[in-house]
Design goal:
By secondary structure, the chain is mainly beta. It has no helices and 16 strands. It has strands at 2-3, 12-15, 18-30, 34-43, 49-55, 59-62, 66-76, 79-83, 89-93, 109-115, 118-123, 127-135, 148-153, 163-167, 175-179, 184-188. A hairpin with a 4-residue loop joins strand 15 and strand 16 (184-188).
């Protein structure tokens, strides 16, 4: 059993004896008042959506599913197609990919997650490198403190381009590392 605060987008949990995939998680509250987690979920058996709010100490059974290394191949509207080393293809629905949509790139390696023999989602590496395709230049005078700016990163799916907060010294065409668990900038990759 895991508390709600340790559940991540893409995890499969049991809610009322139904296997649910967490598609989105919004956190509210403070350490003083306690945190609540509003989750958008989908039933893996019926595909019916569900939204619910849980306290941080509510506990859930996390289902460990089969995983297999795959690479992202292409988008076949409305499905995303992944391929394993044996050239077996797996189609996954857009709504099951969650935050992975922000980072998909042709040939990207990840792990497909299977439930009842069907690929239902993917799990990304915890750290990935992406090139910044657009970033505003630093504004003169905004150099004191921990000032951040927005940067758009490369992505295979234009509709899901992701914006990352980066330090002012990061510029367009830089390659940065991103923590896919928190969607946060980690560092610039220097060659």
């Amino acid at each position: 059993m895991k508390p709600a605060k340790e559940i991540r987008v893409g995890n499969i949990i049991m809610v009322d004896s139904k296997p649910m995939i967490v598609l989105r998680s919004d956190v509210n509250g403070s350490s003083r008042t306690g945190f609540t987690y509003k989750w958008k979920m989908k039933n893996l058996l019926t595909n019916s959506p569900l939204e619910n709010v849980f306290r941080g100490d509510d506990k859930f059974d996390v289902i460990v599913l089969d995983k297999k290394p795959v690479t992202y191949s292409y988008f076949a509207d409305p499905l995303f197609v992944f391929m394993d080393a044996d050239y077996e293809q797996y189609e996954i629905e857009e709504e099951n990919l969650g935050d992975a949509l922000h980072y998909l790139k042709d040939g990207m390696e990840c792990e497909a997650i299977f439930y009842d023999g069907k690929a239902i989602s993917v799990e990304l590496p915890t750290t990935i490198a992406r090139q910044i395709v657009y970033s505003e230049p630093a504004v003169k005078g905004n150099t004191s403190g921990n000032v951040l700016k927005q940067a758009k990163i490369e992505n295979a799916v234009e509709a899901h381009c992701h914006i990352v907060q980066v330090p002012l010294f990061v510029s367009q065409d830089d390659v940065i590392e991103i923590d896919t668990r928190t969607n946060e900038y980690k560092r610039v990759v220097r060659n």
